[in-house]
Amino acid sequence: MFTQITRTGNLTKTPTLFRDQDGGKYTYASIACSRRFKNKAGEWQSGPRIVYDVHVTGNLAAAVVDLAQRCGNVALEFTGRLVEEADEAGVIRQKVYADNVTVSLRGQHVTVERPKGKPRQGPDLAAEASNAWDEQGD
Question: DSSP alpha helices (H): ranges in the chain?
């Protein structure tokens, strides 16, 4: 059984890109998160720091590694399936199998570089992008 979660946090180190036996790309991004809440006095405070091992695959893994190598410690938001696993020493680790990883705009400036020759992404741009590709094919 698993739980679907979405969290925002900072990379704790630059992840490494690996390849599996079939040549598929993957990485483990270590992302530290803490929740803010109001205490009984009504003041905001940070909760305990939780570090998630986020398993990312495919082109998304390559993008996360590239971003970390170019920009260092960046804030990321991830959504995925949370699974608790015990390591060899019996310590329980929280591992997330990522469905998506994005850059957080909170507290940092972000510059987007789009690959040349590809349409912009987004639900409101889907029809526009489809039309652009159709026109290029003519």
Answer: 58-71, 126-137
Interacting residues of 122 by C-beta distance below 8 A, sequence separation 6+: none
Question: pLDDT tens, 88-114?
Answer: 877 667 789 999 888 887 888 877 777
Q: What is the pTM of this model?
A: 0.71
18 has which bridge partners? Answer: 26
Using the structure block, give the residue that is written with the tokens 């986020």.
Answer: 54
Rounded to an integer, the average pLDDT of 44-73 is: 89
Tokens 């405070």, located at residue: 45
- Residues 124, 108 contacting (CB under 8 angstroms): no
Q: Is 64 exposed, middle or buried (0-12, 13-18, 19+ CB in 10 A)?
A: buried
